[in-house]
Amino acid sequence: MTCHVCGKITEYFLEKDGYSYQKCSFCGLVFVDPQPDDEYLDKEIYSEKSGYQGHKKKDLSKTKESPHARRILNFLEKNSVVGNLLDVGCSSGEFLHHAKQRGFNTCGVELNERTASIAQGNGLNVIQGELKDAHYDDDFFDTIFLGDIIEHVQDPRGLLKGCYRILRSEGVLIISTPNLDSFWAKKTFLLYKFFKMPWSVLTPPHHLFQFSEGNIKKFLEDNGFESVAVWFRRPPTLKYELGSLHLWGKWKREKTLKNFFTMLFTFGSYTKLYTLNFLLTPFLKKNFGMVIICKKL
Questions:
Q1: CA contacts within 13 A on the Cβ side of 226
Q2: 207-237 pLDDT, tens per residue?
Q3: Which strand (E) or helix (H) includes residue 19?
Q4: DSSP category for residue 60
Q5: Hey, is 90 helix, strand or coil?
Q6: Is the pTM here over 0.85, yes or no?
């Protein structure tokens, strides 16, 4: 198998939840191979039946700007970026709602029918489907936001090419995605390597690709974008990370002493590491969530 970023030959890395991962020894990209098909992802993973993002609020007027959204929108305002803004994978439209309040002309694309309908019900211009289904004009958008979406798609290169076509010259592309080259990712991997604990960082079949700062910058450059700013965020909540281990479900199904003590030991180890990551955050050059601001060349 060849690497999606640098084209080098990849090697088998590990398996989680029945999914096999490859890793590029040259640039460090990690990805699921073979990948699940489109129909399975659409109907079983990102569907109303699966309960995906079932917690979303229906009235966006009752939502507040998250610190994540505020920092991005403040950056755009500070750099006098205005005009047409597209959110690919916009979910229920919270980011679009607040961007619209800031004066942007907003559009969105969302695969999940239920969350897309929430956005539409709040008066947002959102198309249910994939980016290719929207048929936007060339050079139409001033800003495109890929908020925790590039790691989900089966063809990230195709996604970037689609963004390049519809983004105006010198337009801004914003990507947020997990960073595999972070304290949290590296230390939790050691728990897998030495103690055979599940690795929370890998969450198949939702996340199909795991990037680092270095390889995603190269990937962007190869597809016509120049990185102009990068910043980092802490990992998701401890509850989310522990849930990604799937040990509680295993204990409920089987209820053996081995599963119980494995769960306790793993949860305790993760909790200690999470606390340490939190305390070290002011001193870490890189953290688990990264935001890359790019310009179209």
A1: 7
A2: 999 999 999 999 999 999 999 999 999 999 9
A3: strand 19-24
A4: G
A5: coil
A6: yes
